Amino acid sequence: MKMYDAGKIIVGIIVFVTLITFPFWYNRGKAAPSPKPKLLTREKECVEPTPYMKTSHMRLLNEWRNSVVREGNRLYISSNGKKYSMNLANTSLSDSCMGCHSKKAEFCDQCHNYVGVKPYCWDCHIEPKEKR
Ligand code: HEC
Ligand code: HEC
Ligand code: HEC
Fold first, then answer.
1. Residue 99 Cα, ligand 3 centroid: separation in angstroms?
2. Which pick of 9, 46, 87, 104 has the fewest CB atoms within 10 Å?
3. CB 110 within 8 A of CB 36
4. If phi over 0 gives left and psi between -120 and 50 gives alpha, with beta otherwise, what is residue 13?
5. Atom 42 of ligand 3 has which residue's CA nearest to it?
6. Which residues contact 76 (CB under 8 A, 6 or more apart)?
7. Can you tell me the distance from the alpha carbon of 114 to that of 35, in angstroms, rounded to the nearest whole number?
8. Which of 112, 115, 125 has the most ligand 2 atoms within 8 A of CB, as the residue to mutate?
């Protein structure tokens, strides 16, 4: 086969594949807008670095729960030495999760609805009650 024909065939294949898959990649950008959690706190940092919080906040919450319920320890010392109350939902504590992230609907739920998780924590823990 001459190079000339090979080139034509390759271009043909690229055009064909592009047309066939067009509906898939064309919709990607539109169909699923990424979640936009609103921070709504004047604090500058979370209890641990943001990349860790993004991926591992559920694990941290689990550690907090175990520490409080099993060991009766409510004081968390973060990796940079700051102290926080190990508490999920008490908004009168400014250093609890919901003390800082007081609008669950605009923060936690934004991501959770997007990925389709429904933490059962709120069966027992009281959700922040302001305008939702
Ligand atoms: C003292 C205030 C404060 C406390 C307490 C706090 N956070 Fe945060 N959190 C922040 C701030 C500020 C940021 C954003 C930091 C940044 O801009 O990088 C953040 C970021 C996050 C993020 C990443 C958000 C994103 O858009 O990627 C998650 C998830 C999160 N926090 C969950 C929690 C959970 C769960 C708890 C309790 C275990 C908690 N936070 C406790 C202030 C707090
Ligand atoms: C930046 C996006 C984001 C934010 C903001 C966020 N989460 Fe999550 N959360 C996730 C994702 C993604 C998962 C699912 C992870 C998985 O299934 O592995 C999750 C899972 C969880 C789980 C475990 C649920 C289960 O059923 O396994 C808990 C508990 C949780 N989040 C609590 C919180 C709380 C409380 C807040 C608000 C303070 C919060 N999250 C904010 C993204 C987020
Ligand atoms: C069946 C009821 C129930 C469910 C569901 C539940 N918890 Fe709890 N949790 C409790 C009780 C009771 C305590 C002890 C409260 C105390 O001693 O302050 C507690 C304590 C905690 C604590 C430490 C102190 C506090 O009040 O925040 C954390 C953190 C916690 N739970 C996180 C979670 C998370 C995250 C989930 C969901 C993945 C969850 N819990 C689901 C009942 C529950």
1. 15
2. 9
3. yes
4. alpha
5. 124
6. 47, 64, 67, 83, 84, 85, 86
7. 6
8. 112
